[in-house]
C-alpha cells in the first residue's frame, strides 16, 4: 500500500512540475518598449532564409508563420528582446 501511495504521489508531483514548466514558457520579461521592432525581426528571419507569412506579438513573444528554404511551413516563437528563435514547430 505504501509503495502505491508513494508512486502515485511521485507521479502527481512530476505532472504538476511539467505542467508548470509548460505554462511558464514566457519568451522574455523585457518590457515591450525595449523589444526589437517587427521589421528588425523580419529582416533577421529573412537573412536566415525564411519567407514570412505572418509576424505578430503574442503574449511575451513574437510569433512567426514562415516557410523555410526547404519549402516546409513552420511556426516560430521568437524572443522579442534579441530576436533569437526559441521554438520551431513544423506545420
From TrEMBL:
Highest taxon above the source species: Bacteria
Domain PepSY positions: 9-89
Record bears the keyword Signal: yes
Ranges annotated as spanning the membrane: none
Keyword vocabulary terms for this entry: Signal
Extent of the signal sequence: 1-23
Stated name of the protein: PepSY domain-containing protein
Amino acid at each position: 500500500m505504501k509503495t502505491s501511495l508513494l508512486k502515485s504521489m511521485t507521479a502527481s508531483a512530476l505532472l504538476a512540475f511539467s505542467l508548470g514548466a509548460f505554462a511558464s514558457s514566457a519568451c522574455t520579461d523585457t518590457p515591450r518598449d525595449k523589444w526589437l521592432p517587427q521589421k528588425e525581426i523580419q529582416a533577421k528571419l529573412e537573412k536566415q532564409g525564411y519567407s514570412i507569412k505572418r509576424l505578430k506579438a503574442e503574449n511575451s513573444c513574437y510569433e512567426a508563420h514562415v516557410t523555410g528554404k526547404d519549402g516546409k511551413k513552420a511556426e516560430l516563437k521568437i524572443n522579442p528582446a534579441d530576436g533569437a528563435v526559441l521554438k520551431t514547430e513544423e506545420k
